[in-house]
Model the fold of this input.
Amino acid sequence: MAKSLRSKWRRKMRAEKRKKNAPKELARLKQALSLDKKGEAVMTDMQEIATVVPADKVKKQTDVDMEEVGGDDGKMDMDSKRNKKTQLDENGQYPAWMSQRQAKKLKGKRMGKKGGQGGKKKKGISW
Done:
């Protein structure tokens, strides 16, 4: 497919960029592999920057935290002032996540019910 001049030029330039960056990338890979096989050297470097905590200790701490919050039942914070049928809040606003098209559709349904039979007559021949 890609046989236009632009794509050929881009392909050529990408190849040149790969050639230029290959030595840097190779050096970076060698440095990463020269570190200890288990990643021990990485951890020693990390200890200089941040505190390293064993995974078991973190797991136990999160388990204790989850038990304390156990009375919440994991329910979300819901906006209870919103009408479930029309999705409108007390100020007549639709939720922020609702698209304009969807809001317009719901409004049309709502207004259609209000109008009843006294609305506009359809154009066309009726016999």
